[in-house]
Structures are given as structure tokens and as C-alpha cells.
Amino acid sequence: MTAKLLVYILVMAGVTYLVRMLPLMVFRRKIRSRYVQSFLYYVPYAVLGAMTIPAVFYATGSVISASVGLAAAFVLAFFGKSLIVVALSASAAAFAAELIIGAVK
Amino acid sequence: MDRAKSRGFLGGLKDSIPIALGYLSVSFGFGIMAVSNGLSVFAAVLISMTNLTSAGQVAGLTVIASDGGLIEMAIAQLVINLRYSLMSLSLSQKLDSKFTWLSRLGVSFGITDEIFAVASGKSEEVSKQYMAGLISLPWVGWAAGTLLGGAAGEILPEKLKAALGIAIYGMFVAIFVPAARKAIGVLTVVAIAVGGACCMRYIPVFSGISEGFRIIICTVIAAAAGAFFFPVKHDEEGGGEK
To answer: Which of A95, A101, B97, B223 is the most exposed place for a label (fewest CB within 10 A)?
Structure first.
């Protein structure tokens, strides 16, 4: 492991810890602003959306198999399947697509 | 007696089993992703042991893989993990009077969406023993899953590894799609974030902006628009990844 990587990890862990620790140590009052509360409520969904699309299309090495996997994930997630079922089905669908593409070639 | 037990370390452990199992599988996806981005298994596990958060770690990995700057890394973690501040704030009212500043320092390391949800769902105040139990098993699961995923990523055949690389995105989809189906606000936020991320990726004007900053910009714009147009009610605070 290089020193640069270690510094990256140190910054990651340090900032993440401070974000969790400071409010618990310093503040004893609740955030009252409805706007701030709403903003923080929406952050996880915004992050996950921005990180998933379009990056997912380049996750398997072929846009076609990635699209098949993503489609499977969308359908199963829409019908409320659990995290692990959705994730493994996306992988299985992408894998099947890879095999079919390989066979056609 | 039973009541006292359910509030102690063992009670925390018991309540944390479902969380730990979930973490084991999510971090498996992270382990594979880290190794396929060129990190060692050791580095991947070190990240998981020191961060204990999914979205932040994937974003961090993106910054590392694209050789981004340290300021970029710090801002990305700050924005993505800012929601933990709200949870910390809320949890600070829930801790019993025996909490010392040292135990507060310890507990704050382990605040995640799921652990926060379970702790704040307790009807009474929580003890430091209970919190220690609630945090330790998911932490072990998170590290172990990363180790297994990283190791699998090194030995599995290329095609299978590629297919498993999509697993962590599948989990992200499993979090935001059901939420977007239920609430127009979440749907709007996700649509704006995805639209923004696509614009930044495919429109040449934005090509100078690094990966990490793209995530930051899209997140802030989408969440701010959501908060402005669809403010949530107070009882929904602290929701998020499940």
C-alpha cells in the first residue's frame, strides 16, 4: 500500500468520523429548520442516484450486460424485493447476458 | 432481569444480527469493487474498518481510482455523510445519563442509517453497553464481507467478477427505487441527480470536473431542490439508506 493511498483513507475516515462525532459531543439541541431536515433526508437518495447512473453502465465491461443487470434490478426493486435479492439478481442477469453475448460472437 | 439484559450488551448484539447479515452482503460488493479498481484486499478492509458507510466508501473509491485531490475527498465525504450529523444530533437525546464523553466518542464512530434506526426505535433511553453490542457485530460483518468480496474478486474468473461488480449498484437501486415509488419528492430528487450525473458525464463542457466533485454537485443540487419543492414532515427525519 502506498503512502498516498494511506493519506486518502486517513482523510476519508477522519472526515466521516468528525461528521458523526461533533454533533454528539458539541450540540445538545435538535435541528429545527424544516429545510435543513429535508435537505439531509434527501441526500442519501441523491447520492445513490448520482453514483449509480451512468456509472453502472461501465461496471461490467459491456454496456449491454450492464443494462440487462440494471433492468433486472429496477424491476425487482420496484416490487419491493430485498437488498440482497435485487443485488444478486442484477449480477445473475448481467452474467447471463455476458454468456449469451460471448456465444453469439 | 430479562429487561435489564435486553438493555445490555447482549441485547444490543441480538438486535444487531439482521443489520450484520445485511452488511456482510453489501460490503461483499464493495470488496469486489475495490479490488477491481486496483486496491489490495488489505486496503479495502482497512477502508471498511475505519469508515463503516456504503455510499461514502464507494464515492471515496471513485476519488481514489480517478486520482482525485484530497480536498475533493474531504468535501465528498462531508456532503455524503452529512446526514449522520442529523442522526448524531437526534441520538444525543436518547443516550442515558451514564454516558461519559469517552463513550460518546466511541458510539459516534458507529452511527449508520440502520444502527441509528434501531437505537432510536427503542422506547427507553439506551445504555453504552447496549450501543456497544449494537455496533460491534455489524462492524465485524462489514469488515468480513469486504474481506470475502475482495478475496473473491482476486480469484473469480473475469466474467463472473464483472457480473458481480454490478451487485453494489443493484443494492443502491434497491434502496432508491422503492423510496421513489412511494414519495414524489424522492423520485424528483433521484431524477435530478441522475440527470445531472449524465449531463456531467456526456456533455464536454463538464469534462474538466473530476468524478468526486460531480457527485458532490449533483447531490447538493438535487437534495436542495427536493427540500425546496417537497419539504418533508418532521417525523420523517433521519430516514435514508436501509
So the answer is: B97
Nearest to B18 by CA among B125, B129, B141: B141
Which residue of chain A comes nearest to B41, CA vs CA? A1
Distance from CA of B91 to the nearest CA of A (A): 8
For chain A, report the end-to-end CA distance as a whole number of angstroms.
Answer: 39
DSSP B34-95: HHHTT--HHHHHHHHHHH--HHHHHHHHHHHHTT--HHHHHHHHHHHHTHHHHHHHHHTTTB
Facing A19 at nearest CB: one of B59, B78, B193: B78
Interface test with B, best of A51, A64, A65 (most B CBs within 10 A): A51
Per-domain boundaries in chain A = 1-30, 34-104
Q: What is the ipTM of this complex?
A: 0.89
Give yes or no for a contact between B189 and A46, defined as CB atoms under 8 angstroms apart.
Answer: yes
- B144-162 pLDDT tens trace: 999 999 999 888 888 888 8
Give me B84's grid cell: 449522520
C-alpha cell at A50: 448520482
B4-39 pLDDT, tens digit per residue, is: 666 799 999 988 888 888 888 889 989 999 998 999
Helical H segments across chain A, by residue range: 3-26, 34-52, 63-78, 83-104
B116 SS3 class = helix
Instruction: Tell me whether B137 touches chain A (CB under 8 Å).
Output: no
State the greatest distance between any 2 C-alpha atoms of chain B, in Å, as a whole number: 66
- Pick from B172, B190, B228 the residue to mutate for testing the A interface (most A CBs within 10 Å): B172
